[in-house]
Design brief:
alpha/beta, 4-stranded antiparallel β-sheet, 35% helix, 310 residues, 11 helices
Length: 310
């Protein structure tokens, strides 16, 4: 459905996209994640011809995308991070307006608008102006406006920012439903648990490039993140770190203050580590066995330092 080849985009002295390549198959929920300023939104804007790029090619639905391709744009729904609704129109009229940009037949448009209202759970708010809605309801209105015309490709850019847990759950389950009904989804978020829950495939982008792509399991295997043992408030004196590294199957030691995270090949290694600690009378407060998350993969690939980019 999407093929982006060798895309470059320069903002004065900043290279926002640097030989950016992306392929998305029909029917995927594709997670696109990266630190602030990594190029996520720029890549989406270039993909949709909302932003001109310096070099490269973008193909959507097997056809070359350009600003004049209204036939391709009619197949796309874009839900931006910022709320993009008309504050002088009520809920129903907002959805009707955006749906009407692509659906001219009145009877069809009315049917689609009602379905979008039902989908977003906005029925009792249909006469409300956006300013009278809560933050979560405005997010759901934003989504309803973007999907009312039944697009085949839907792009969600941080759709759950600053919403309550109930609205967040409604949005995530709605995205799953849209995908089950045939839509291909691109999903960007800083909430790694959302991306891991939704996505069939994930790409991690940084400094304008895709660093790695795959399923969550493939990404964990790529960076060698197995299960881990977290040891809290442990005495690390007397060469303990070296003796732990010598245990067969220990991949990595991550130390923060007096806490130690030991990444291992399998659960048998964890048993060997616990035996080693007990046999050597090592003092610690508690042990926790954890499986790696997408957040662990993300930090391992992009680094743990604070990012101040816009």
């Amino acid at each position: 459905m999407i093929e982006i080849k060798n895309l470059f985009k320069q903002y004065k002295e900043v290279l926002a996209l640097n030989n950016f390549n992306l392929t998305v198959e029909y029917g995927e929920i594709y997670g696109l994640v990266g630190p602030n300023g990594s190029g996520k939104t720029t890549s989406i804007n270039c993909m949709l011809s909302l932003l001109k790029y310096d070099k490269g090619e973008v193909y959507l639905f097997g056809k070359k995308m350009s600003d004049s391709r209204s036939d391709l744009k009619a197949k796309i729904g874009y839900i931006p991070q910022d709320i993009s609704v008309i504050y002088d129109l009520n809920v129903y009229d907002n959805i009707d307006f955006f749906c009407g940009l692509y659906i001219s037949d009145k009877a069809t448009r009315k049917k689609y608008v009602e379905e979008a209202i039902e989908f977003a759970g906005l029925n009792e708010f249909r006469k409300f102006l956006p300013a009278k809605l809560s933050g979560g309801l405005r997010r759901r209105l934003n989504i309803a406006c973007g999907i009312a015309h039944k697009p085949e490709l839907i792009i969600f850019d941080e759709p759950t920012v600053a919403v309550d847990p109930q609205s967040r759950n409604k949005i995530l389950e709605g995205i799953k439903e849209l995908n089950r009904n045939g839509a291909t989804i691109i999903y960007t978020s800083h909430y790694m648990e959302e991306v891991e829950y939704l996505s069939t495939k994930i790409s991690i982008i940084d400094k304008g490039q895709i660093l790695v792509s795959g399923t969550t399991k493939e990404l964990k295997n790529f960076v060698g993140l197995g299960n881990s043992l977290e040891v809290n408030n442990i005495d690390l004196s007397n060469g303990l770190e070296n003796s732990l590294r010598a245990i067969n199957g220990v991949n990595k030691l991550l130390k923060t203050s007096n806490n130690l995270k030991i990444i291992v090949d399998n659960d048998m290694v964890i048993s060997n580590i616990i035996n080693h600690l007990n046999q050597n009378n090592i003092i610690y407060d508690s042990l926790n066995i954890k499986t790696p998350t997408l957040n662990d993969v993300f930090l391992d690939i992009t680094g743990r330092e604070l990012r101040d980019n816009a």
